[in-house]
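dumping this here before i forget
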Amino acid sequence: MSDPRQRALDAQSLIADLIKAARKAGADAADAVYHESRSLSAGVRMGQPEDVESSESRDLGLRVLVGRQQACVSTTDFAPAALQELVGRAVSMARAAPEDKYCGLPEPDQLAAQPVELDLFDGIELEMPQLLERAKAVEAAALAVPGITNSEGGSAGRGFGLVAYANTAGFSGSGFSGSHSISAAAIAGKDTGMERDWDYEAKTHFSDLPDPASIGRKAGERAVRRLNPVKLDSAAMPIVYDPRVATSLVGHLAGAINGASVARGTSFLKDRLGQMVFASGITITDDPLRRRGFRSRWFDMEGVARQTRALIEDGRLTTWLLDCATARQLGMASTGHASRGTTSPPSPAPTNIYLNPGRQTPAELMADIKLGLYVTELIGMGVNGVTGDYSRGAAGFVIRDGQLAEPVSEITIAGNLKEMFPNLTPANDLEFRFGTDAPTLRIDGMTVAGR
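structure:
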């Protein structure tokens, strides 16, 4: 691959020329975004290659504003004639579009000024033979676990992404990142008594990935442990969320404080800004500047400077997630959370969001639970963002006298996020694995619907 820094500069030059052409064609303001991605992956099953995939894409999007009217167009054709046609079409569409009093670019003093080095690309791009070798190794480790009878496969992959953004308010910037991943899914048992489980890791740097054997072994051990699940009687009891599923609760918060939902009045937290939403001591952080973070970038998709901020601080809701349009609608300022593809205007989205760890170990968190549920898998999307009502299919393990006991499946856990959040207690085992992260979490007072 050619130098990614030069590719980023070339992309910035391309979209800078595009927004200049838009102004010349009659736009009052304009911005443009360029996306480039490349990935390679290999999958095996029972030791044999099952699928290999390679993909490359480049596309760009142009948004033009004529007064308070705006239009977005996109293309994958970078020929000069095609780009000139794109500009003319965008301006014509904007002139015919309805007015939107909230649309527009950020003010110059909101724009990011200096790039921040976030160490998102290590320059390592494994080729297909190496990926196949890693996929075979992770699956072999899963199959070697006693009790494993079959496999859904092992896989390994790597990727590269580049984004550039510029606007007529005076911003031009770019960023690029890499990714490396490995996974395995194993099956234990026979006939109608089979159970499956998995493990997965992804990092921006290859050196940060665990050994394939450890991933496969964990997938196999998890599957075996789920054999012979029991039913659980319906009751109210403490629920403990494994970190793999605890992240979903952070995601529900992010959705509830998204400025678009708040502006529409469709969030169960729409009237809670500045109020206690969690218990004292709970902090949830959004960190777009974390080194080697999957969603790290020093500017948002309107060119606004990004900063690390506590969304929940000592239990209190401190902010909404805002882009420029939702900020204007709510009479506030952008928080630098604009996200954007190439086909539509910006909208708010979190970056690297995580619930800060507590002080207790997971074992200490469960020690006083006489009867409870440890959840390792959630099924379905039974969450109402307007009311906060929560109902999810679940599987996991019974907690008896503070210890994990027999596996359990085919149950439903229910509550309301407005009551669940204040009763949430985190353990101290936070690991940064994905874009949304959380430690083990305990919530008292939820309902389990079983037999």
